[in-house]
Amino acid sequence: METAITAVAGELLSRFISFTINKYCSSNGCLEEKGERLQRLLMRVHTVVEEADARHIANSGMLMQLKILSEAMYQGYLALDTLRFQLHEESSMDKVSDSFISISSATRLKRRRTFLAPVNKGKNLYLEVNGALENLEKVVSDIAEFVVLLGGCERLSRRPYDAYLYIGNFMFGRHTEKQKLLNFLLQHNPDGAPAVLPIVGGLAVGKKTLVAHVCADERIRSQFPSILHLNGDNFLSIVDHEKAILGMSSLLVVEFVSDVDDMEWKEFYSFVRTNRRSKVVIISKLERLARFGSVRPIFLNALPYEELWYLFKVLAFGSADPAEHPRLVHIAEGFAKELHQGGSLIAANALADVLRRNLDAQIWLCILNRCNKVIEKNLLAYGQHPKLLMEQGHEVDMTDFAFSPVSPLRIMPCTSSSSATYAPVKELPQMTIGELLLDPSVRPKGQFNLLSWESRLPPYTSFIHFVPNCTEDSPEGTHLSRRKRRGMAL
Question: What SUPFAM superfamilies does UniProt report for this protein, alphabetically (predicted)?
Fold first, then answer.
C-alpha cells in the first residue's frame, strides 16, 4: 500500500509541475515562438549594424546608439544559441521519456528529487531569452531615426577582406572605436599643431589591428601619403625621415611597451610639429602614456563575453551552420568562457583555426580539457593564470596542451613581428600551435619557435613564442620558482 501511494504521489507531482510549466509558457508565449521572434529581430538589427559599419559616422550621438545596437545584438545571439541547445537537449530527452512510465517506485522517488532542476533551468532560460527579446524590441523601436540619419552618412570604400564571408580577414566589432579613430584622422588639427591620439588597451586586445584596419582606408591613405610605424626604441630616429615629415602630411604610429621620459617626448614632438598637417597615434598598454595625448584617448578593453562568444563561434564553425551542430555550440561556449576569463584574441583565433578543421565533438572536448588542465596546472604551480604570466614576462607550462607528459613543454612570452622581417633566433625550426596540438610527435627536438597566430590583416603580424630545450629543465627553476605565488586575478 505504501509503495502504491508513493508511486501515485510521484505521478501527481510530476503532472502538477508539467501543468504549471505549460500554463506559465502559454501565458507568456512559448520559448519556440520567442526564439523565432528573437531571430527576426536579430536579422533586422544585424543588417543595420553592418550597414553602419560601412558608413562614416561623425555624430557622437549616433556612435552611442550604434554601440547600444551592437551590444543588444550580441546579447540576442547568445540567448538564441542557448535556447537552441536547450530545445535540442529536450528533444533528445523526449525520445526516451516513455521508458519512465513503468519504472519502480524507488526510481519515481529519484525522479521527484531531480525534476526540480530542469524547472529552475527552464526558468533561467526563459528569463534570459525574454530579457534579450525585450532589449532588442526596445532598440528596434528607436531604430527608424537612426536609419534615416545613417542614409546621410558617407559610405566607406569596401575592400575584399571586409566581406562577412571572409570574417577571418577583417576587423571584427569595435564599431564605435573604428569610427572614432577615423574621425580623428580625417579632421583638421584644431590649433594648427599635430594632434596626438593615444590608444590604450591590454595585451592582445586588437590595438594594432584597429590602426591597421583604419589606415587601409583609401581616404586615409590619400590624406597621409606617408605612414610611418615607430616604437619606443627608435621613435627618436624620426629625424631620419625629415624629408617625409616636411614634404607631405604624415601619420606617425608609435608603439610603446614601457614609459617614456617627458624630455624625450618633447624632443620627438618638437620635430613632428614642423609639419602642422601631421598626426600622431600612440599605441600602448600603459594608461599613463595618455598624458601625451591632445584629444581624449581611445581605451580598448577586452571584448564583452557576448561579443567574444559570437566571434569565436563564427571563427570555429567557418562555413558550417552552427544550428546543425548544437552539441558543438555548447562545447564552443566552454571555450568562450575560458577565453573571456584569461584568454586573448590571439588564442581565440589559434584555437578556432584548429577546431574548424575537425567538427567532431570528441575532438573539441579533448582540446577543451587540455586547455583546462593547462590553466589548472599553472594556477597550482605559480598561482596565476597563464595570460597573466605571459603579460609579466614569465614562462608558461604547456605540457598538458601538447599531450606530452614525458617531455615537458614550456613557452616564453609571445613576441610580435612582421612575417616579412622576422628572422628566427639561430634559424630555429618553427611549427604552429595547431600542428603541435593535432600531432605532438612532430615536435622538433631541442629549442624551436612556436607560431601561435599570424594576422591576415596588414602588416600581417606574427605572434611567436620561444620554446626552450626543456630536457635541460633549467628555465623552471630560474624565474618562476622564485616568485611569490599570488591568487588569480580575473
Answer: P-loop containing nucleoside triphosphate hydrolases
Question: pLDDT tens-digit profile of 193-232?
Answer: 899 999 999 877 888 888 988 888 888 888 888 888 888 8
Please state, in angstroms and rounded to a whole number, the distance separating the CA atoms of residues 258 and 200.
Answer: 12
Say if residue 479's pLDDT is above 50. no
Distance CA 330, CA 333 (A): 5
b/e sequence 348-381, b meaning 16+ C-beta within 10 Å: bbbbbbbbbeeeeeebbeebbebbeebbebbbee
Q: Report the chain's mean pLDDT, rounded to a whole number.
A: 77
pLDDT tens digits, one per residue of 78-108? 999 888 888 777 666 555 444 443 434 333 4
Nearest residue to 275 (alpha-carbon basis) of 226, 322, 211: 226
* DSSP label of 167: G
Predicted pLDDT of residue 95: 52
Kind plus residue range of the DSSP H or E element containing 207 = helix 207-215
292: cell is 601625451
Residue that the C-alpha cell 615537458 belongs to? 408
Taking phi over 0 as left and psi of -120 to 50 as alpha, with beta for the rest, 427 belongs to: left
The edge-to-edge listing of strands for the beta sheet with 461-467 is 415-418, 461-467, 448-454, 430-432
Strands (E), 173-306: 195-201, 226-231, 250-256, 279-284, 298-300
Alpha carbon distance 386, 372 (integer Å): 11
Q: Cβ–Cβ contacts within 10 Å for residue 164, how many?
A: 9
3-state SS assignment for residue 411: strand
The CA distance from 50 to 56, in Å, is 12
What is the maximum alpha-carbon separation in the chain? 101
Is-contact 371 338, C-beta < 8 A?
A: yes
Q: Quick one: pLDDT band at residue 24, thresholds 50, 70, 90?
A: very low
Question: According to the model, what pLDDT value does residue 490 have?
Answer: 23
The residues, ordered by sequence, that sit 6+ positions from 304 with a Cβ below 8 Å of its Cβ are: 71, 74
Q: Which residue would you say has higher pLDDT here, 91 or 250? A: 250
pLDDT above 90 covers a percentage of the chain that reads 25
> 133 burial class (0-12, 13-18, 19+ CB within 10 angstroms)?
buried
- Amino acid letter, residue 161: Y
The DSSP string of 327-384 is HHHHHHHHHHHHHHHH--HHHHHHHHHHHHT---HHHHHHHHHHHHHHHHHHHHHHSS
pTM for the predicted model, two decimal places: 0.73
CB 154 within 8 A of CB 182: no
Cβ-based burial of 113 (10 A; exposed 0-12, middle 13-18, buried ≥19): exposed
